[in-house]
Each structure stands twice: as structure tokens, then as C-alpha cells.
Amino acid sequence: MSAVQEVVTEAPAVEAVPKRAMTLGYGASLIMLALLIAAPLFVKNFIIFQLTMLLIYGLAVLALNILTGGSGQFSLGQSAFYAVGAYTSAILMEHVGMNYALTLPVAGIVCFGFGFLFGQPALRLSGVYLALATFALATAMPQLLKLGYFEHWTGGVQGLVVTKPDAPFGLPMSQDMWLYYFTLAITIAIYIFSVNLLKSRSGRAFMAIRDNEIAASAMGIDVALYKTLAFGVSAGITGVAGGLGAIAVQFVAPDGYTITLAISLFLGMVVGGVGWLPGSIVGSAFIIFVPNIAEGISKGLSGAVFGVLLFLVIFLVPHGARQVAIVAQQLIGKLKRN
Amino acid sequence: MELFTNQILAGIATGAIYACMALAVVMIYQAIDHLNFAQGEMAMFSTFFSWQLMQWGIPYWWAFLITLAFSFVGGVLIERLLFKPLAKAPILTNVAGFIALFAIINSVAGLIWDFTIKQYPTPFGSSPFLGSQLISTHQAGMIGVTVGLLILLYFFFQFTRMGLAMRAAASLPESARLVGINTSWMIALGWGMAAAIGSIAGILIAPVVFLEPNMMGGVLIYGFAAAVLGGLTSPLGAVVGGFLVGIFENLAGTYIPGVGNELKLPIALALIITVLVVKPAGLFGRPIVKRV
Amino acid sequence: MTAMLNVRDLRAYYGQVQALHGLEFGLNEGSMTTLLGANGAGKTTTLRAICNMVRSTGAIEFEGAPLAGRSTENIVRLGIAHVPQGRGTFTTMTVEENLQLGAITRKDKAGVVSDIERMYDHFPVLKARHTQQAGTLSGGEQQMLAVARALMLRPRLMLLDEPSFGLAPLIVRDLFKILGKINREDKVTILVVEQNAQLALELADKAYVIETGRIVMSGSASEIANNEDVRKSYLGY
Predict the structure, then answer these.
(1) Do residues C164 and C196 touch, judged by C-beta distance below 8 A?
(2) What part of B 201-240 touches A (C-beta under 8 Å)?
């Protein structure tokens, strides 16, 4: 063992995304919004359900973007928060009879607390160590949910069935369509909140911590507070997503929230562009649709096809969808000048 | 008390598996400064390869040697073809690459050899070791091979030119280039060596956990945990860490109420994290001084 | 006489920022040259560009061979040793391992062993500490180690980036004396980048002055030392 310490000037593990580039321009945002509002009017219910899941996973990826892309903390444990949110909603709806819409803020707050608490011991960990810790959390969650101790509430291995809500006020739309617009409204609200959060002082504190924790601390930023805050906010949003997911799928069960979900969300973040909030929906689309495409190409080798497609994406756009957006922006800029 | 000692011994026996895997993990960490999530799958594939050779009639030790060479070359090729292009990409993108590699190898292995469990032979036999009911001759053999590997690696790094060059490239890549070392090839070499060590781990582990494409999942996580616990820069730490993880796992299963097989993994991980919070660089790791 | 190192129209970039704007200079074989300039003038960038450690355009030729497109390690193997800013010592390895690393590309084992002995003659303090971890050495000792490591390559050209940085004046004098000796006896061409203009000008034959990425003055060391602008800006009188 040596007396000499290895001195490391660490480059941030997560590269900085300039603040301006963290969102879409107004034009693109409006087009996106119009598309999202119009979409369900033209498709069948099952597709509407898939679109709803697209938004829900988009929220979960967005939450991870705030945590990793924003504050530089690496998490492979988001599935745990998603599960807690889902079960909170399910239990409140089925055992307490609470209205589905009200369960969501509860799920959010419960998960915020959970995330904030988890952020405490996580303070001393970073990089691979934090990855391992969050991985442990994600692996433990399905097992915890199966524990006989909680079975009366959680339904044990079989889980709980959740009743799907009808459109309110007798509006003439299917359950799926109502749920889609409900989810869309929440997604937009959370998106706007997140964008503002990252632009605010807290957001700048997050990014300072991400880029150089020691320097941030030397500048007077309460690193502990902001790191746990980031965890809390991220967990809270993931919890809301989980709750929405429970309602949309009409079902919660422990094996629906395994480490595979956590890894998928991570991949969604990378494909969308780490730290680029609008990319969350691109990432979500990737993790929902590409596995199906892979299975369509080859049932026996679906995993391999998925891996190959993933490699293709990261070779072509190592920085994710953000890279595509930047290139598009430059092209539009050139066209405008001509 | 006797139960306790027995559990410790049993833990050391199972820990040999994790120790071996942890060596491969540390090897790769030395080369690329992060953990390769696909390493378990690479080890699994190598093990299947050796099994296939034996199915074709090739004797155990020849199959072993051929597999070793195959794994080394495979590791180098994977690095050159798939990860060298990502060298300038962000770390998280590389991690996505590891996950993609995992998916590909697991799927291909499943297709070629299907998911039914297969028996895998051991050259050490499986009778009780020195009459002890807790350690079989195979487990003793595992411990022996792991320790032997550790000694070989120590000699390689401390006393050979190549080992010195690899250490330099891992320690300060820019300075290493300034003495003429091709750091890019050092990384490829690191991958090759890690793959070879991983194949040894797989070949040793398969008789115990049985050969099937998902055999390395849990082992890899424990291997990571062991490497991290031991200090990611120390092969000795990896081996000690492996034994400790085996002991933790056994003790947790025996003494913590309500912990069945499923919760052993998270509990073991939680214990390790606790140690890390106290000693962030791991037990044998060099404390890292971070400069702004 | 064609120069050993020929640099023409060198432009270097850090991302979008251009640090060198068309540098031109040459080093004759056996010469000791110093490149002077203030902080941020581009001195370190010049050395890094020669070794392809920074993105650059232009033509750099070493003994007639163009360096463009070669990797850093290949440029080093041509016989160019670079002692970087901050010394780049392998702090977790012993003094002797550092010296062995300097010679890692050489195939003559016996030659390496005798060269290590020669380094210990040049720098006795290294011999005293040869099994110690390099990180435990003082700043001056680490600088000596860095120079010794560079010499283990048996370079034809040695580039030194601010060797006097953070060192006491007496130690710097010793170091520079040894550099002079190496230049004369071992026939190593040397290019020293320095902020400490006075000592550098005493040591060198030739000098260049660089300001914001351009060479603004060149000449023999004594000419430059006596130049009024240089005296005012860099020598303080």
C-alpha cells in the first residue's frame, strides 16, 4: 500500500450541456405540442395507449435527465421510484378508494421523500459507486414488494388490479383517450416545471455540482442540499410517472419493475441526449418501440438485434437526439441565410 | 459459534467465484477506467465455447487453452471494432455500448446453445476437500487457481516491460504517450487480458452454477461489488473483496431474518456500500485526492 | 543548413479558439533555443502542437520528415522527448520505474541499464531516492526526474515546458547548468519554453519571443537580452 495518493483532476463524468441548448426553440415546441394534441384523434385505442406510455416513460426519462444530466449523479435505480409511485397510486385507489387524479400528487410527494432520503447516504458516493448503490436499490425493490409482510397491501407476487377511470363530466371520449389527454396535461406541466427548475438558481447549482463539485462547494453552494434535492425531485417525477403507469396499465406487480426497467430508462436518456430535456420523449420512443421492432426482425435473436440497433444509434449519434437537433438547427440556420 | 465459522468457510468457498470474476473486472478497470457490464456475458460465451470444444471431443486442458486464446483475441477484437470508435464519446454512451454488447452476446448464446442447463466438468473433482463437508475439492481448486492467477498478474505488472507500460498508460495516458507508449493498444491489450481472465472465471464457475446463458448475471454484480470493495485499482483487493462478499452473502442469508435467496444480493450490496461510505476508495485502493 | 526542426505556418486550436496564428521558426541541430512569452502567449501550445497533442494545421518537419498525421507516441519514437508542463511524472511509480519508462521503446537492454547509471551520475539525488515513489520527491527533484526520463529516450531533440516553474532559483540554476552540459556533451538539441526570461537567455544560443500566438521577435540570445522592449516587458528593467 502506498503513501502516495493519486491526484486526479477529474473531468465531469457527465458533459455539460449549455443552458440555452437544454430546451427546444419556441417554434419546435409548438409544433411538437400540436402533434401531441392531435395524435389520438386519428388512431385506434391501442395506439393511444402506447402514446400514453410514451409520455409516461418520457416523464421517467426526463426525471433521470434532471438527476444525471442536471446534477451529474448517475442512477441505475429509477425503477425503484417508479415502482413506489405505481404502488402508491394503486394502493390508494384500490384500498382507500381515492380518486385517481389525487393519488398522483401523493405518489409524487412520497417518492420525493423517498428520493430525498436515499440521496443522503448517496452523498458520499459518485460514479461507479453510486451506480452500484442505485443498482442495489433497483434489484431490491421487486423483492421488497413480494415480501409477505406487506402482502395485505401490495397483493404480494400477484400484485393489484387497478380500475381505469372514465372520462369526467360525461365527455364523449374513450377511457384511453381521456387518460392520454390527462397524462399529456401533466407531462406538459412537469416539463415546464423542469425547464424552469434547470434555468433557476437551483438548476445552476445542480449544473455547477455536475461540472465540478469541489469548485461548487468552494463557491458556497450547499452541495449536500442540492444533491439530495435533485434526487428528491427526480424521484418525485418518476413516482408520478409510475402512478400514471399503474392507471394506464391497470395493473401493478413486482416483476413489472425490475432492473430491466431501470436500464431501459438509462438507455432512453442516452439515446435522447443526456441532459437535453426534449430528448426524453425520443428516448422513450426508443425504449418502447425498438424492442418490438427487434422482435419483429428476429424472434430468436431479438436481444441481439436490439443490441445492434442500439450500437448503430450510438455510433451515428453518440450524443443522442440532441446531436440531431443541433445539426437540424444548423441546417435551418443556413437555409434562412440563403 | 460453530455455525458462524461454518458460514465463514462456506462464504470463502463461494467467494472464490466472485474473487475470480473480480480480477477480470479490475483488469478492465485498469485499462479503461470504468466497469464493463458485458464482461459476465463475455465470460459466459467463452465458457460455452470451451464446452462446445469438449462436445467435439477435445480434451479438457486443450479446450481450456484454446478458449483462453480465443477469449483474448475476442476481447481485443471487440475493443478495436466496437469501443475504439466510441473512445471520444461520452462515458455514458460507452456504458450504453456495454449494455448493447450484453444484449447481443446473451441473445446469440441463447440461440446457439439454448437456455437449458448443462453440466460442466471440473478437473478437480467434487469430493469433500480434506474431509471437510463445507469445501469441495473443486472449490479448493477454484481458490487455488484464483490465487495463482493473482500471483501471475502481480509478476506481470511489477516485473515485465509490458506490465509497466500498461500501468503507465492507465495511470497517466498523456505522459505514457510522451514516452512512446501506444496507449490505444494498451487498452486493447487490457480488454484481451480481461476477457481471458473472465473466461477462466467462467470455466471455474460453471461446474457450480451450471452452464446456461444467464449464469453470470448475479456473479458479475457480486464481482463488481467485490472489486469495488477491494479498491478498483488493486488485484489483491479484488480477491480479498471476493472472499468478503461471499462471507457477507452467507452471513446475511443466515442471520438476517426474512432474507431469503432473493434479498441476499441487495443486502450484500448494501453492506458493501456501507463500507464504501466509510472508506470511499475501498479496502486496498489508493485514496484519490481530487484536485479542482 | 537545413534546420533540424522546421515549423511553417503553424495554427493551433482549442475547440473553436485559435491559439497560434501562423508560427514560423526553425531549430538548428545542436542548438539551444528558448521560446519566451507571457502567460497565455502560446508557448505551451507550440510544444504541444509539435507533438500533436493539440489540433493544428501547418507544416512541421523533423530531420526532413513531416510530422503531420503522426500520433504523439510515433513522434516521440522519432527521437523527440517532451518534458511537459507540470512534469508528468508517474507519481505512483518508483524513480527507477520512471526512468525505465523513459526507455520503454528501446530494445537495447544493456544500453538502458548503463543509461540509468548515467542519469544517476548527472542527478545524484535520484540515485539516493531510486526506490522511492516519485510522488514523494520534491518539486526540484521531480523536475530532475522528468528531464532524466526524457533523456532515457536518447532523444535528438528535447522540448522542455517551463522547467523552472515552482522551483527555487538555486535549483533552477543547477538544472539549467545540467541542460547546458547535455546540450554540449550529448549533442541534444534543446528547445526550452520559459517565463523566466533572464535565466533562459543566459543559457540559450537563440531566442524567439511569442505574443498572442505569433512570433514577434527572433535573434541570438544576447541580441534579444539587450533589446530594449524585451528588457522592459520580460526582464523588468
Answers:
(1) yes
(2) 221, 224-225, 228, 232-233
